[in-house]
Records
---
Amino acid sequence: MIRENAFVRTEERPALLQRLPDETCLRADVKLLWRGYDLAVEQEEQMRRRLQADAKKIEVVRRFEEVPGVGWVRAATFYTYLDTPWRFAGKAKLWKYLGIGLQRRRSGKGPERLHVPLQCQRRLKCMILGAAKSAIAQGNNPFADQHRRWLEQGLSVRLARRNVARSLAATLWGLWKNGSAYRPEWVGVADAASAAAVPSR
């Protein structure tokens, strides 16, 4: 058994053939499979370039790409699957749809528990969590700063990353609704204002 990346480079294929039993039919079949693989890779690349060109024509997708952690694939995914920002009354409903929000549930008279919803749009959940991970890894942006602060406050890596995903989703949603450009200084401003408005006990 070999991994795909072992035969991606055509110059290494003769050495792989030498590892096979000396059977003409077997080696011919492997070469035929490689030709099919090369054709599929070429077709995939053509499709990717065409999709990228189409995505670049959409103004809001171009604005999404300015957000740390969001490349054209993630920007186009967010745009395509959400279809319109007006589907959601508030960001909490958006987060629930993405699978990164919290919902309360109680069984009988037992205690109320908070948990992440199991039913969600899986592709968008992967997209937004991946964007959060990328933004954190890039560093030197407000989302990475948020992640660092949440870790310092004692949150687990997983919860801090999910909070960053929520912040990213709210940012993308806001850009779409307002038609504005990405402004790093605006990230987390609404949340900070809300927290400041709550009286301390």
---
Amino acid sequence: MASITASVYTSHVPAIGAALDLGKTGEAYWQPLFKGYEFSKQWMKDNTPDVIFLVYNDHATAFSLEMIPTFAIGTAAEFQPADEGWGPRPVPKVIGHPELASHIAQSVIQQDFDLTIVNRMDVDHGLTVPLSLMCGQPEAWPCPVIPFAVNVVQYPVPSGRRCYMLGKAIRRAIESFDRPLKVQIWGTGGMSHQLQGPRAGLINREFDNAFLDQLIADPETLAAKPHIDYVREAGSEGIELVMWLIARGAMSDKAPTLRHRFYHVPASNTAVGHLILENNT
């Protein structure tokens, strides 16, 4: 049977992608950030999975305000990098895993979670920046990727509790797949940031690090955190952190092994957080 071996959590700041694509990683501003992912890139080479299930949010590229699914799973054979207004990022196309994605959709929907099945979409920086941070700049990504888009753009957005329980449903779905695949689940977005209004540029180190502590050690309690706490403490875009609870919920009920933790500010006007957790089964 398939199994989830690890979970990866990282911010997906678009400026990080631009720094990579424009060769700015060696500049003094960006060096500390990319240094925090050196361990991660080696870990990824040493622990390359068969499939990555990548939880992210679309930024009005695949979906517009005319139609916003709460949860959408990409079931296509491939996904092109999106043009977000300045041309697509110069990164490889994403190869999907239609067989596993369709199985997950079937299983999760039968567990009473409504998913939108997407057979064609482009993927934006929410998905490609995490791949770049973990895999560098290869000619092809090291394994297939299943995109899983969550609405954290247009309110109402799903609760932390629903995301956490959805992660458990995804775990059950993957573990019922009848091929011995090693799967990693990634949660992306956040950490604290606000892009508009009087609080634009908000960064809350204390909240961010408390969130990381609790995500590792007490995700059940963290899942109960109400939306207003995210918005008040982490800014309007800090709500993206509920997506990390999907990845955490998909992990084994046993305490995970923390392989790497990194936190840095600022990257553009955003706090960057990063974790690698390995399953103990």
